[in-house]
């Protein structure tokens, strides 16, 4: 069965079939599915150009994919109503786990306010993001390890190809879970303008977007420039979640923090010992403390305000009939604000003689929230990228390209009202501050007792600065080698030189440890990579019974990094077209992830940690146990009892090696002949990661060593810890990042596409389903295996079932689009089982859009997201908004309207 170009293009748009793209000389795109791939009209054959699809560097007229892939065209993006790339990709059924978005108040790999995609839940730094087939610079607020999707304007996107398979043999490091290749428009002729506004049903979260592009297509070249402005207003957390919920006697009640704005603590006797029950402070005295809680949601947003400006330009010029110069440039400016809880002070003694104490007894302040000085994180990020090069065709029809790619990112984040520990110590040393007029004494007794003068003395605005840079030179060539009995053998090869650099300069008080926040060292590092790859497509059989076409693809890539040496990765793929209806496909590949800048060059923080020594009082252990035998063999004194903490190193590790992965996929593509317009794909995947980078805590390291047979565990070496041979005390313990973990993920993806004409209307239905069968993590050899499949927690959702249903019906004027996103039920991995919120039920979000083509130039679009105002489910282990804000919708029902005009 052969389908029209229109149907093939729609099939590509949701990526439900292996596909190839054929670009004609007049830049119109013809897309054929697997069923179409052996036929071309005579009319088209004279103007066909070759190109490649994501996952391969081979340029061909007829391209099919041996690996599962999802493709979103510009029209698909418009139908979803997505205004940023992360919204679109995070809705995919193949996405899971932890990634940044606008409702996320946590630091992700790109810094506060950044957004990413996390394929298979394997981590945002294991999904490679490309722009027009080339790497993007990592972006955020400094020394980052992933691409901030905010840097890519939606208005210039032609399509997004998501390869859900390892691809290190083709693209190099980091393509472990898959590849996201964002492809921009190559030409714009005239003016394109779009404007959009949106608001939630509760009248907040206003969103404004404006896009304009101007371009010209000439006889020897073309160029265009596009600008995009996007602003979203904040949504207050209290409007979506009135308070942090907790269970009490089988019911959910408002909880919160015991750090009260007025303070709480104990009165002290003449010996400085606490007496009586704990009390909370009032402006003029105290009252008994009955477990009151501060509703810290008052300091949060459900949606963070965000503003960004994107500039993008692309141009190409025919130097000769067979050589073309091209260049693209991009700039993004982003600002974001995240409110946060005021800081808390504790352990301060307010003497009875001081004027701030209205009683006649010394008082120990156990905790007090500085509600007079709420914090705010202000983030700014600027990202540039310029690519220039030449591409062309040789006399033998081989195609080549060379390019230089430079990207730069500069970012900062400033936190207001951070405690300066040294200044606070002075302001609460009441003997000192009472005698020094330059030091205002801190009045901590009761709510609103701190004056602006007091706060200004011991609070400061902390600012970190950082950035990332990337430089690469690439060269590729592809063409046909020989004509074999079953078809033409094609080949591609290329080289790449790349340098990555990242740095982060924390505030000086943060480096010194005087800031009341996590101490952090400066990060500054870089690495270079030199790579070469080879790829081939070998037709094995054709035009035989049960073997219409059988092709083998193979790729190998050698990478040399100055930080660890060489690494080789391969990929083998087999595609077996049984007939015009049924195709089988499979791939086997290896992939790797290179340790990123923070992992390699993050500073080492040394401190005394609460750690359990397994040899403390070891003589009381079972004499037949490994632990008993090992403590004896290590000559630990028989009377040894651990006292206190252990000196421990934490942080980066310059000796890290790459993570290594093996990926297997197998699937079928069925073009159902008995139901015209119906196509189905079914794919199985399995990914195993070895030497995964993580940090193992000191107690676990020591236990693993002493519980192993004959202290054979790798953690037993001197590089991990040393023990004083005389006293038995552990002198040194190292918990820096290491290659200790293993991860295994497997599951099934299914996709169905159906198109049918009903009179003057055309209907398109796409249904994507993902089933996560296994996600097992072992943090180190011998550790218990943690199973994440079917769970949810503070690190994201790993539900077993996810689905997306897309449906639209259209004629020449109207288009009605409907989308249902389904997120399956899951157990809270970190909850107390049996309590409320130990699991979540399945959730379905419905989104509706209507588009009207007023005339050839003007179109009007309106839509409703979360049509039925589905509330986010409660679960225990996530404390912001009582739900998982990386998975569920806090905004509720919202509306948008858009206008587009082209000339």
Please describe the topology of this protein:
Layout: H1 5-13, E1 19-24, E2 29-33, H2 42-45, E3 48-49, E4 69-73, H3 74-80, H4 85-90, E5 127-131, E6 134-135, E7 157-163, H5 168-171, E8 178-184, E9 190-200, E10 207-217, E11 221-232, E12 235-236, E13 245-248, E14 251-254, E15 264-268, E16 274-282, E17 285-288, E18 301-303, E19 306-318, E20 323-340, E21 344-345, E22 348-350, E23 363-369, E24 375-393, E25 399-419, H6 421-427, H7 430-435, H8 452-458, E26 459-484, E27 487-505, H9 508-512, E28 523-544, E29 547-561, E30 565-577, E31 582-593, H10 597-601, E32 604-609, H11 626-633, E33 646-651, E34 659-672, E35 678-694, H12 698-706, E36 721-723, E37 730-734, E38 738-758, E39 761-778, E40 785-787, E41 791-793, E42 796-798, E43 801-810, E44 814-823, E45 826-828, E46 839-840, E47 843-853, E48 858-865, E49 894-902
Parallel strand pairs: 5-8, 33-37, 41-45
Antiparallel strand pairs: 1-2, 1-3, 4-7, 5-6, 7-8, 9-10, 9-49, 10-11, 11-19, 12-18, 13-14, 15-16, 15-23, 16-17, 19-20, 20-24, 21-23, 22-23, 24-25, 25-26, 26-27, 27-28, 28-29, 29-30, 30-31, 31-34, 32-33, 34-35, 35-38, 36-37, 38-39, 39-40, 39-43, 41-42, 43-44, 44-47, 45-46, 47-48, 48-49
**In which range does the helix fraction lie?**
under 10%
Backbone shape? globular
Number of structural units classed as domains: 2
Distance linking N and C termini: 38 Å
Write the CATH fold name of the largest domain: Maltoporin, Chain A
Q: Tell me the β content.
A: over 45%
Nearest-integer average pLDDT? 89
Q: Could you name the CATH homologous superfamily of the largest domain?
A: TonB-dependent receptor, beta-barrel domain
Q: Give the class from helix and strand content and strand pairing.
A: mainly beta
């Amino acid at each position: 069965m052969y389908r029209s170009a229109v149907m093939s293009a729609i099939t590509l748009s949701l990526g439900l079939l292996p596909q190839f793209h054929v670009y004609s000389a007049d830049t119109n795109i013809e897309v054929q599915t697997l069923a179409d791939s052996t036929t071309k009209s005579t009319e088209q054959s004279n103007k066909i150009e070759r190109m490649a699809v994501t996952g391969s560097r081979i340029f061909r007229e007829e391209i099919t994919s041996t690996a599962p892939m999802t493709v979103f065209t510009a029209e698909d993006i418009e139908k979803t109503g997505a205004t940023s790339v992360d919204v679109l990709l995070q809705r995919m059924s193949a996405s899971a786990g932890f990634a940044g978005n606008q409702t996320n108040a946590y630091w992700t790999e790109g810094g506060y306010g950044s957004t990413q995609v996390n394929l298979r839940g394997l981590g945002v730094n294991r999904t490679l993001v490309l722009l027009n087939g080339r790497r993007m610079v990592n972006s955020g607020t400094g020394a980052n390890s992933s691409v901030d999707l905010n840097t890519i304007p939606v208005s210039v996107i032609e399509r997004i190809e998501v390869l859900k398979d390892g691809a290190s043999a083709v693209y190099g490091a980091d393509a472990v879970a898959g590849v996201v290749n964002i492809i921009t428009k190559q030409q714009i002729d005239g003016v394109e303008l779009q404007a959009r506004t949106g608001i939630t049903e509760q009248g907040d979260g206003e969103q404004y977007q404006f896009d304009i592009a101007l371009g010209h297509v000439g006889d020897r070249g073309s160029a265009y420039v596009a600008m995009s402005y996007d602003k979203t207003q904040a949504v207050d957390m209290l409007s979506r979640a009135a308070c942090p919920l907790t269970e009490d006697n089988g019911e959910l009640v408002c909880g919160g923090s015991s750090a009260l704005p007025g303070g709480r603590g104990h009165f002290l006797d003449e010996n400085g010992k606490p007496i009586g029950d704990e009390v909370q402070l009032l402006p003029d005295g105290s009252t008994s403390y009955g477990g009151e809680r501060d509703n810290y949601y008052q300091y949060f947003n459900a949606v963070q305000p965000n503003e960004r400006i994107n500039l993008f330009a692309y141009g190409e010029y025919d130097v000769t009939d067979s050589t073309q110069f091209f260049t693209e440039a991009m700039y993004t400016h982003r600002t974001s604000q995240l409110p946060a809880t005021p800081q808390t002070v504790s352990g301060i003694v307010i003497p009875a003689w001081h004027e701030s104490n209205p009683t006649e007894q010394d008082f120990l302040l156990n905790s007090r929230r500085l509600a007079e000085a709420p914090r705010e994180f202000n983030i700014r990020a600027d990202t540039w990228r310029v690519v220039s090069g030449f591409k062309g065709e040789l006399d033998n029809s081989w195609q080549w390209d060379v390019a230089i790619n430079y990207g730069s990112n500069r970012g900062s984040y400033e936190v207001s009202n951070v405690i300066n520990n040294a200044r606070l110590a002075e302001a609460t040393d009441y003997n000192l501050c009472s005698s020094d007029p330059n030091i205002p004494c801190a009045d901590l007794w009761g709510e609103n007792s701190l004056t602006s003068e007091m706060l200004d003395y011991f609070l400061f605005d902390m600012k970190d600065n950082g950035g990332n840079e990337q430089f690469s030179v690439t060269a590729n060539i592809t063409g046909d080698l020989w004509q074999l009995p079953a078809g033409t053998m094609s080949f591609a090869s290329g080289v790449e030189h790349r340098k990555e650099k990242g740095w982060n300069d924390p505030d000086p008080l943060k480096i010194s440890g005087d800031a009341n926040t996590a101490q952090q060292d400066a990060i500054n590092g870089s690495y270079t990579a030199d790579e070469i790859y080879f790829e081939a497509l070998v037709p094995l059989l054709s035009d035989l019974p049960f073997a219409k076409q059988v092709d083998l693809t193979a790729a190998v890539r050698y990478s040399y990094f100055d930080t660890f040496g060489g690494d080789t990765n391969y990929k083998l793929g087999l595609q077996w077209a049984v007939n015009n209806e049924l195709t089988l496909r499979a791939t086997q590949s290896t992939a790797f992830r290179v340790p990123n800048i923070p992992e390699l060059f993050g500073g080492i923080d040394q401190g005394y940690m609460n750690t359990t020594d397994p040899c403390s009082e070891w003589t009381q252990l079972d004499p037949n146990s490994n632990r008993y035998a090992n403590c004896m063999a290590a000559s630990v004194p028989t009377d040894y009892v651990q006292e206190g903490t252990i000196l421990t190193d934490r942080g980066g590790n310059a000796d890290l090696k790459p993570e290594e992965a093996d990926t297997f996929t197998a699937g079928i593509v069925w073009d159902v002949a008995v139901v015209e317009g119906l196509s189905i794909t079914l794919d199985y995947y399995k990914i195993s990661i070895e030497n995964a980078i993580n940090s193992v805590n000191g107690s676990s390291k020591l236990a693993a060593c002493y519980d192993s047979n004959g202290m054979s565990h790798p953690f037993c070496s001197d590089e991990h810890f040393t023990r004083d041979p005389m006293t038995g005390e552990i002198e040194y313990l190292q918990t820096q990042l290491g290659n200790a973990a293993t991860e295994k993920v497997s599951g099934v993806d299914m996709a169905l596409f159906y198109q049918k004409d009903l009179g003057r209307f055309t209907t398109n239905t796409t249904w994507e389903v993902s089933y996560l069968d296994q996600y097992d993590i072992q943090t180190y050899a011998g550790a218990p295996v943690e199973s994440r499949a079917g769970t949810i927690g503070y690190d994201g959702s790993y539900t077993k079932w996810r689905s997306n249903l897309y449906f639209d019906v259209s004629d020449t004027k109207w288009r009605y689009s409907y989308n249902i996103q389904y997120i399956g039920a899951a157990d809270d991995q970190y909850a107390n089982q049996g309590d409320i919120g130990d699991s979540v039920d399945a959730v379905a979000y419905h989104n509706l859009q209507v588009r009207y083509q007023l005339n050839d130039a003007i179109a009007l679009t309106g839509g409703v997201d979360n049509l039925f105002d589905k509330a986010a489910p409660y679960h225990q282990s996530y404390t912001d908004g009582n739900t998982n804000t990386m998975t569920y919708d806090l905004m509720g029902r919202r509306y948008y309207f858009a206008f587009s005009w082209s000339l």
